[in-house]
Amino acid sequence: MSSVSEGTILDVRAIRRDFPILTRQVHGHPLVYLDNAATTQKPQAVIDAELGFYREICSNVHRGVHELSGRATEAFETARGRVRRFLGAADDHEIIFVRGVTEGVNLVAQSWGRANVGPGDEILITAMEHHSNIVPWQMLCQDKGATLKVAPINDAGEVIPEAYAALLGPKTRLVAMVHQSNSLGTVNPVRKMIEMAHVAGALTLVDGAQAVAHRNVDVRDLATDFYVMSGHKVYGPTGIGVLYGRAELLEAMPPWQGGGDMILSVTFERSTYNQVPFKFEAGTPNVAGAIGLGAAIAYLDQVGLELAGAHEAGLLSYATEVLTAIPDLRIIGTAREKASVISFVVDDIHPHDIGTILDGEGIALRTGHHCTQPVMDRFGVAATVRASFAMYNTREEVDALAVGLGKVIEVLG
Ligand SMILES: *Cc1c(COP(=O)(O)O)cnc(C)c1O
Catalytic annotation on 58? Predict the structure, then answer.
């Protein structure tokens, strides 16, 4: 790894050299990658780790007595330990490998939810949740005769504290909340929200898909019951993610998928289940992905998330300043606590057209509802254009975005 950050300023040029894709051209222009909230690019260390698994130690985990299986198992479990430290969890057994946030939420809704939620119970979410933190709860509520409640947000895109407090009650079984919104950038005061949920007697699940890439997260400091993250949004591989759950909860929860590795013994009459985390990891896991995620976390540790977050905060305020100066451009999501995402619309120009024209300039942005249709409804728009930043982005790239937008408005405005 070539990037070494010293002092208080991120060495962005060194960081960029660690990400091979950033040197490529798109439509004859240098790639300006501003779609990091959808997925981040991968440093060479992560690519090497995945490749290294397949070239050197490819084998199934937890089963074989042979050398390669032992090495693969060790690498897989080392990655689990890295994730445990990354999230500040107490024990490796509290870290369950899943495909990503989507699967993590579904696991909790299906396993914990089916065992603990009944008719008349309530699940509380916020109005800024990603579809993956809405639909699994909807499905559970429909099955169980429970009710899904939604804490509203204000015009800035912040949860309204009084409304949130009023929705918490003795029927609330669980509160599911996003740590950092992918479409608005809002950073929720999750520590406080968790505390309030616990006072009401509810459990909590935090969707950390965005947050973990931009700030240090400590699940014990937050005191959350569940926390979910996806590897691919923290510079790791796709198809791997993590569910953190408090040990007592996980131990009491029934398995949600049956198969190999999650059992201790099987007869046709009955099976006995393995201990956590294996009880929840049926079948062959994404071994290479987990090892790649471990490498991504090691990379982040080396760079320093605090430095990266500070750099991204600088980019966000610069981009906000630059975009605000563009006439007819409206920023959607102006929370006081906000990070790394800037969503906007331009009068009379369809977001899709903006995205397509900017793609021609090599600028990768996301346009659409960002899997948060209720947020679009709340702000009375069908879609937004979203620029989202990672540690390798630069002010020059923000300038390129502004120049590109100027061209779009000239042509279509
Ligand atoms: C990306 C994202 C998800 C879904 O993550 P997957 O990796 O697709 O499962 C959920 N919530 C937020 C806030 C996201 O940004």
Answer: no
Q: Where are the domains of the chain?
A: 4-30+304-412, 48-301
Specify the CATH superfamily of domain 4-30+304-412: Aspartate Aminotransferase, domain 1 (3.90.1150.10)
The dihedrals phi and psi of 190, each to the nearest 5 degrees, come to: -65, -30
* CA–centroid distance, residue 271 to ligand 1 (Å): 34
Phi then psi for residue 228, to 5 deg, are: -125, 145
CATH topology of domain 48-301: Aspartate Aminotransferase; domain 2 (3.40.640)
Which pTM was predicted? 0.97
Instruction: Residue 201: count other Cβ atoms within 10 Å of its Cβ.
Output: 12
Distance of alpha carbon 149 from alpha carbon 168, whole angstroms: 9
Mean pLDDT for each consecutive 10-residue tract of the chain (413 residues)? 60 98 97 98 98 97 91 98 98 98 98 98 98 98 98 98 98 98 98 98 98 98 98 98 98 94 91 94 97 98 97 98 96 98 96 96 96 95 97 98 96 87
**Ligand 1 pocket test target in 207, 212, 217, 389 with most atoms within 8 Å of CB:** 207
